[in-house]
Hints:
The chain has a 3-stranded antiparallel sheet, with no helix packed on it. It has 1 helix and 3 strands, in the order H-E-E-E. With 59 residues, the protein is mainly beta. The termini are far apart. It has a domain at 26-58: Ribbon (Complement Module, domain 1).
Amino acid sequence: MKQHAPPAPLQPVTPLPASPRPRVDSESLLQGAATLEIDHGGQLYLLRVTRENKLILTK
């Protein structure tokens, strides 16, 4: 009977560095809506999703 060699030890995985900026999923912001109003410093901005599924922020 032929003996099998033991499996090679697993190599440690280096985790990716954390992003220095906070990240928010667009779905959690929009919550199914196509547009979202953002009040920033007393100014009103509109975040909307285009037909091509891109985001546009306008004042």
